[in-house]
Backbone:
């Protein structure tokens, strides 16, 4: 399959490149070192209409297809994977479930401010005892009059300390086997009983804010149940399919940046009176990078394209996420190798790229979980 | 409220030009194209003046049919409408030809109070199209401008000259070429890009102009410049200095 970009797609991607070079590149090192949320960049992204890309204009979005959205996340992540992820988490996991499963009232109340970037979204699924095994979650939601009362601790929640609106999955019926007894809720940081717990210090994507979310008798109006009672697991799984295309795009940006830096450095670095790019050892590393990145890009765009066509894309999203994340990890490591000692020093971009790449093999389903999904799809 | 024409050119991205190894020939096989860097300032100034004074801003470009790709990009940067003067023969135009084609197009159908051009183009950088166009249209012209104000029927401009700044008042209609430091071009937002696709584009063909625009020059070849470099190492002691003097004398740098 060949993806020939439309003139509009090319222009949108070029404009995001220009945006990232102007607003993100100059602060990328600083926000990484300080683990700082780039509020000023988020504000500018909102102002320029990038916070609700794949949702219709009537909800404040831009009405882009998912493929273009994926390309934009790739381009933003090429400058800063943490900023790219903050946007994709907000868009795919925060706003996505409300668009797919929300009532019209919920869309008016929550989706519009998310798409306009007035509010930041997140997704609270993982718990201390329930990572890949989502069904082992222990957060509960009990109906009390017109409100659900939620109790439990969510962990590793991206956008946790800076987000406003979260999709929270909790058990509403303990009698049913776990997946069927789970429901999803729209919970805001202003709901009584909502609290941000520990804020984590991470190896990579350090400017993306990650924390616990503690729900202690957290009262959520009955009308903020998302979808139907018992649909929580399904909503979570479908949202993760969405999110995986976002992570694949983010990983693609990291891999592309690793290649960009490697080409630049290997042509400039002189050893033994010649650029190191003339050495076959370096050429082979770069050839492998280019080839793997092309394959990763096809997988990612293919998953996005299938979603745009309304076709099943769960397996393809997992394939894209698995291959692209492993490509980003392998080749950011090679990029550090090409840079030699300099690659290990703070301030050289490849050092950050290698740290940022690792998480793409872990969150929104580990590489092992992706293999489970892919195998289950072909062995049924 | 001024009616402004902002002019832009679709040029080869210089970063993509390669010299064919072992020769002084340029390889343009894999080059990309973009709106000339200087014309981004021109488009931005049009957008800024419209925000300040109201009125309307249109874009104007001349080129081969392939240059149409520049139109959406330009429209995402401010103009409400674009005029695309095109013909397959419009490649490698001389500045005089470009100015004549623009003058013919403007005279035939575009009303204006002010025309803004970049200081020069990103490829030829001849800096001639603006002044030539003004001459052909018979309107006043100011070049190398880094500040524009509109006051009733005049444009008050500051031009950078060798010893300082010259302030001029140009009766409108007039033409101004702007320097890169006149503004910082904005990055078009997503909504600007999407809106650009809905803005009108008017194509003006060579037939519509009903004229011929012959070149005065013949381009025989375009070649890369090369600089011969040699490397001599010497220390800072008296022997090294004597050696340096000898090397420079031999090379004819000093005598």
Residues:
């Amino acid at each position: 399959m060949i993806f020939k970009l439309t003139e509009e797609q090319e222009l949108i991607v070029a404009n995001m490149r220009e945006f990232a070079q102007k607003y993100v590149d100059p602060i990328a090192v600083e926000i990484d070192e300080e683990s700082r949320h780039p509020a000023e960049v988020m504000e500018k992204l909102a102002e320029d209409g990038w916070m609700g890309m794949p949702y219709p204009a009537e909800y404040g979005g831009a009405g882009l297809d998912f493929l273009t959205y994926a390309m934009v996340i790739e381009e933003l992540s090429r400058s800063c994977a943490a900023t790219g992820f903050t946007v994709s988490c907000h868009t795919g996991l925060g706003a996505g479930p409300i668009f797919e499963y929300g009532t019209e009232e919920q869309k008016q109340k929550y989706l519009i401010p998310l798409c306009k970037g007035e509010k930041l979204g997140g997704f609270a699924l993982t718990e201390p005892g329930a990572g890949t095994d989502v069904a082992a979650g222990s957060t509960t939601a009990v109906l009390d009059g017109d409100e659900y009362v939620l109790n439990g601790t969510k962990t590793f929640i991206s956008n946790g300390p800076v987000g406003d609106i979260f999709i929270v999955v909790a058990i509403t019926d303990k009698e049913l086997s776990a997946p069927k007894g789970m429901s999803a809720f729209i919970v805001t940081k202003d709901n009584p009983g909502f609290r941000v717990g520990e804020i984590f210090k991470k190896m990579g994507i350090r400017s993306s804010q990650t924390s616990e979310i503690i729900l202690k008798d957290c009262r959520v109006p009955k009308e903020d149940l998302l979808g139907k009672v018992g649909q929580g697991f399904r909503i979570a799984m479908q949202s993760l399919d969405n999110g995986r295309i976002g992570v694949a795009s983010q990983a693609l940006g990291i891999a592309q940046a690793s290649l960009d830096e490697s080409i630049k450095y290997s042509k400039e670095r002189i050893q033994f009176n010649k650029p190191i790019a003339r050495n076959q050892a370096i050429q082979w590393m770069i050839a492998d990078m280019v080839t793997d990145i092309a394959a990763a890009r096809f997988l990612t765009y293919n998953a996005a394209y299938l979603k745009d066509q309304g076709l099943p894309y769960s397996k393809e999203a997992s394939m894209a996420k698995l291959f692209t994340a492993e490509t980003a990890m392998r080749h950011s490591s090679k990029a550090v190798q090409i840079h030699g000692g300099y690659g290990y020093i703070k301030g050289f971009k490849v050092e950050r790229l290698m740290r940022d790449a690792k998480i793409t093999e872990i969150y929104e389903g580990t590489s092992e979980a992706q293999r489970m999904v892919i195998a289950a799809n072909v062995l049924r | 409220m001024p009616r402004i024409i902002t002019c832009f050119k679709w040029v080869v991205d210089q970063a993509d030009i390669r010299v064919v190894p072992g020769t002084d020939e340029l390889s343009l096989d894999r080059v990309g194209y973009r709106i000339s860097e200087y014309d981004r300032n021109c488009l931005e100034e049009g957008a800024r003046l419209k925000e300040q004074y109201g009125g309307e801003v249109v874009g104007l470009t001349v080129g081969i049919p392939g240059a149409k790709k520049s139109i959406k990009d330009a429209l995402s940067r401010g103009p409400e409408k674009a005029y695309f003067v095109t013909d397959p023969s419009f490649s490698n135009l001389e500045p005089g030809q470009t100015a004549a084609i623009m003058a013919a197009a403007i005279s035939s159908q575009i009303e204006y109070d002010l025309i803004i051009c970049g200081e020069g183009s990103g490829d030829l950088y001849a800096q001639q199209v603006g002044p030539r166009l003004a001459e052909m249209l018979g309107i006043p012209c100011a070049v190398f401008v880094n500040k524009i104000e509109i006051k009733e029927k005049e444009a008050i401009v500051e031009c950078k000259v060798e010893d300082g700044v010259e302030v001029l008042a140009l009766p409108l209609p007039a033409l101004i070429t702007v320097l890169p430091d006149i503004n910082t071009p904005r990055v078009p937002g997503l909504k600007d890009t999407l809106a650009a696709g809905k803005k009108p584009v008017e194509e003006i063909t060579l037939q519509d102009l009903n004229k011929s625009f012959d070149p005065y020059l013949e381009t025989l070849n375009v070649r890369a410049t090369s600089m011969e470099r040699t490397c001599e190492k010497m220390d800072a002691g008296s022997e090294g200095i004597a050696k340096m003097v000898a090397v420079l004398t031999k090379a004819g740098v000093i005598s």
